[in-house]
Design a protein that fits this description.
Chains A, B: It comes from Gossypium hirsutum (Upland cotton). The structure is a homodimer. Chain A contains 23 helices and 12 strands. In chain A, the strands form 4 sheets. A 6-stranded mixed β-sheet of chain A has the order 8-7-9-10-11-12.
């Protein structure tokens, strides 16, 4: 209160009019003694304090050091280790019941992860075995570092597709398989580095700029590209084999997966469908192999664990830029998916997932995986949903998944010899068709046309231009949307709702009525350089229109302009200059300008630029009207 | 009112507590019958109407067709012509008195424009005579097309400097003078085309993104570059001539110009100084030419009017991109200066300058000028100020200026033969030093640190990187500032100011107090994809902190969270999803979520996404608190 400019406090008579509205008798005492409240400055802070406060809100909105407060050094160390390795936190009270649930869910997601891993590797133009390798090391790493209990980690369709598209534009995976593999591992390394850096620098806000609208469009566009690619292969094969046997398998796969998204109780159908299809089709091919030729099959897969791939990382040469670019794009996309999935299931079970910590976990996981022949992995939406529905309790389900993949890698590889590639294409198409969320797009159209525009831009950008450019355009549209809202903000004329102190938009509230001699305006946006010129012109136009209306209706002349600043959440120097100039221009027309309820930061800036005059600031519109009308009445 | 979801209207008892604050006795009737007001939807509009409304606010905020409403066709034609050629508007009632004022001011600015024209042409690495040509045709064009009465048109320092810097980076004006000249004219043509297109497409909002902060930094950086360049030449010359004679001239020039900015009454000193310096120094050189050798002089200037330069325009070849880029950068800078100057003096004399019309006028002027051997021109701030102070009344002062330049071009060219280049350097330095507005920079620092940052970025960017990149960085910083405000918005805890219905920040208003069992929060920003995750976490953190505080103080348990949406000026689909999710999460903790006073567009979107439940919307915080507390009391 010490810095308050000058506290205006006096009492004026204000008569309520006691009208009857909507059949309810409103009996406000006809003469209420009314206090005029002063507008306070926010508590004084030094520039350093303000900077600290601002930076902590930007980078540490979740106050991560909160738990370390008032603890002993020893306890702090334990808490720090638990922060880095969340397994230490829940590991101590892990019991057999939890383990039983985790084994069931782990085996369930493994039955989904193995065929999907092989298929997604194919989507990224990588050998099928890389998909299995990527379903072994990353889940193990995540179970140590990650804070989500339900995330099922492994290759995902979007990141696989983007990596496949971006790399194969420059390097052919058929002509230069080793170079292509090197680039894939290098891109994975950079994806991890980028993700971990974002987390370490607490720049989690970057992924907030990929809005849901953008992702809906992006995924639909990507799904169509992938489906067309796979369909080409699929139709080529169909030509050789007997149609009748393939269609039922395909339809059943489609049917089951689609169903299970709606009815979580049937999740095991969707979970079992891919593995069942793989087993059935492999058996089928094995049985008919002597009769039908030309069916493309996976062929020989090498038994054994992930070989190290540190020697495959590629830190100089002409394709380094490509690897970095691919890494950043796949990194940000897989991060967005991983964090969104983690947060979704955390909110269902009411626990917190720390975004920046998750970024570091996923980033470190990808960096480590790139050295063990894995490509980009993250938390998959479909597998995490299955994991959750199968009753997963902790990250141990990821360890069980890794164990199952380990057994597969060591002993079961020959079984995949006759698996037809066509079934992998079917699995991919099934997975990506589910990404086309036309209902979400329709909802966007219904609720927010500009969001729909961002969605459409993202869709066509990805479909017809390229993945990074399409994403870039969509993010650009989203940002322009924010800027447009600031550049051309809404201004309203307010009126009084009879017998209350409420002032609301005349256009919206039919019961609101103008206060004679006053024009009450509200600005619905911060006042910035980008809109100060517009706002000045717009406000003057309101004044002019009001004066013309008054002239036409022969009402009492306009004397005072009140601007309700409640929604003006920030102001900059251009904005303050604009308000000063507006005040001067109105004074030339013998009009008084009064501001109502500026928020803390706006008040502070106006105070510092010495704009504040006496009697031009009020806390509520009602008080401003009452006080100014009283000052016009001849003193008794 | 037809679309209101369900109008909640019932009466509840609400007891005021009648405390005494600040020594003023507040006597609110202890039992006031209170009406609960419903929240209305805005009037229904079709998508097309909304789009029309939105586009008209974006592109036609000044409602330019307003004057054509309810007019006959003949009158509309006259008004249309007057709109295109404002001279038709004031030309009919032009009289001798106005003409007298215009002649005086026209001659005054001519005495400033001729030496400045020659100097600025040198700044752009162009022959001095181009500066004179550019002070002849553009003022004539502007007097026909322009709507400002005080703008003095001609070459300006910023545009000259930028053109000189950008072109000479690629093409040497010494080695390839003709190519350089061609590029300058071509850049001027594209500058004009760009400006006219912006005006025609009503994209005036583009120049709003060059904030004052950016320009302060930019001009200071540019001024330093120019001064260093010119000083190099200046010191080279000083070596040959006698120091003692130069210094007084320089000091007097500096002194006078600086003084006149502060005291408009002495404007003629500043106006006369450059011409006086030129005359005196020319005389001096003429007198000492036999004694001292090596003084660089202007030399022979060709008599005669502007030659046509249509054959010099350059529409293909390797430098076309350079010319276009230079044209766009100089075009946008000169436009910003011209419009800002025009608006400043228009507001002093209380008339309107139509931004988009001005862009078209300046653009057409530059396109036409590029065909008559002129380079980029616009309204100069210093000369317009002199023009205004000398009593200019209409654009006729520009015609007088052009006439004076015409006489100079036809008859007085030989007089400039002995004018030393050093005096031109002095004029340039004097002009640009005035652009370093350290006071404005200090004010930026004092009022808004982020504006100061944009200013500093622009300053160092221009000084150490390059003109377009420096400007780009500064605009980027300004945009990031807007985005940052949206990404990490302010959230407040509100409390009741006793004996009122006012709810204000607890942190700012010490008299405000918490309402038991309620947590009242306010969000000071639109809710977008870019901040929905942050806001959800932040709001939950407020709830958690409140619950801990209540536990520590043994207060009554928290039952209801009220969010004051007054300052939430927009919402998108991610924002709506966030609010829905928040509601669900709070319900799990047995907390009720209530929204207060959503603005029109937010209300509409929530309605369309079927978010609205009954009893979760109120018009004011006071009514929400009263109604919800009443519902908790046992019914009698």
């Amino acid at each position: 209160m010490g810095v308050t400019s000058d506290r205006v406090e006096y009492v004026c008579r204000y008569g309520g009019n006691g009208t009857t509205t909507s059949g309810v008798n409103v009996s406000i005492a006809a003469e209420v003694t009314m206090e005029i409240h002063s507008v306070c400055l926010p508590p004084k802070e030094s520039t350093f304090q303000k900077l600290k406060h601002r930076l902590s809100e930007i980078f540490f909105p979740d106050d991560p050091l909160y738990r370390f407060k008032d603890q002993t050094w020893c306890k702090k160390l334990v808490l720090g280790l638990q922060f880095l390795f969340p397994i230490l936190q829940w590991g101590s009270h892990y019991d057999l019941n939890l383990f039983k649930s985790d084994v069931v869910s782990g085996l369930t997601i493994a039955s989904l992860a193995i065929p999907q891993g092989i298929s997604y590797a194919q989507l990224a133009n990588l050998p099928p075995i890389i998909g299995l390798y990527s379903s072994f090391v990353p889940p193990l790493m995540y179970s140590l570092l990650g804070s989500s209990r339900h995330l099922a980690v492994g290759p995902v369709s979007i990141a696989s597709l983007v990596m496949g598209t971006m790399l194969s534009e420059k390097v052919s995976p058929v002509q230069h398989p080793t170079l292509y593999l090197k680039l894939a591992f290098t891109a994975t390394f950079f994806a991890g580095l980028f993700q971990a850096s974002l987390g370490f620098l607490r720049l989690g806000l970057v992924i907030d700029f990929l809005s849901k609208a953008t992702l809906v469009g992006f995924m639909a566009g990507a799904a169509i590209i992938v489906s067309l690619q796979q369909l080409k292969g699929l139709l080529g094969i169909v030509h050789f084999t007997t149609k009748m046997q393939l269609i039922p398998v395909l339809t059943s796969v489609f049917h089951h997966t689609k169903e299970s998204m709606k009815k979580p109780k049937l999740f095991w159908i969707s979970a079992a469908a891919p593995l069942t299809s793989v087993i059935l089709s492999t058996l089928l091919v094995f049985l008919i192999k002597s009769k039908v030729h030309g069916i493309s099959i996976i062929g020989h897969l090498q038994k054994g664990l992930n070989p190290t791939s540190t020697n495959m990382l590629y830190f100089n040469g002409q394709y380094l830029a490509l690897a970095i670019k691919t890494g950043i794009v796949t990194g940000i996309l897989s991060l967005t998916e991983g964090i969104a999935v983690g947060r979704t299931f955390a909110s269902l079970k009411n626990y917190q997932v720390d975004g920046n910590k998750e970024m570091m976990a996923i980033g470190l996981m990808n960096m480590a995986s790139s050295c063990t022949s894995c490509y980009v992995t993250t938390g998959s939406f479909s597998r995490s949903a299955v994991n959750y529905n199968a009753g997963a309790q902790t990250a141990v389900s990821n360890i069980v998944l890794a164990g199952t993949v380990l057994v597969t890698l060591l002993f079961l590889m020959p079984l995949f010899y006759y698996t037809p590639n066509v079934i992998l294409a079917a699995i991919i198409i099934t997975a990506v068709i589910g990404l086309i969320d036309y209902k979400a797009a329709y909802k966007l159209w219904k609720v927010d046309k500009l969001d729909f525009l961002a969605c459409i831009c993202s869709f066509f950008g990805v479909l017809f231009i390229s993945v990074p450019l399409g994403l870039g355009i969509a993010v650009g549209v989203s940002v322009v949307k924010i800027l447009l809202h600031v550049t051309r903000p809404n201004t309203l004329v307010l009126g009084n709702i009879p017998a209350t102190q409420i002032y609301q938009s005349l256009n919206r509230y039919k019961e609101a009525s103008r206060v004679p001699s006053f024009l009450i305006l509200a600005i619905e946006s911060p006042i910035y350089f980008a809109n100060s010129t517009y706002l000045q012109e717009r406000l003057l136009r309101w004044v002019q229109e009001e004066e013309e209306r008054i002239k036409a209706n022969h009402e009492s002349t306009l004397k005072c302009i009140i601007i309700d600043m409640t929604s003006v959440t920030a102001i900059d120097t251009s904005g303050i200059d604009m308000v000063c100039e507006l005040k001067k221009m109105l004074e030339k027309r013998s009009l008084v300008l009064v501001l109502v309820n500026p928020v803390g930061s706006v008040m502070e800036k106006m105070h510092r630029s010495n704009f504040l005059g006496t009697n031009s600031l009020f806390l509520t519109v009602g008080e401003a009207v009452a006080d100014i009308s009283a000052s016009w009445k001849p003193q008794p």
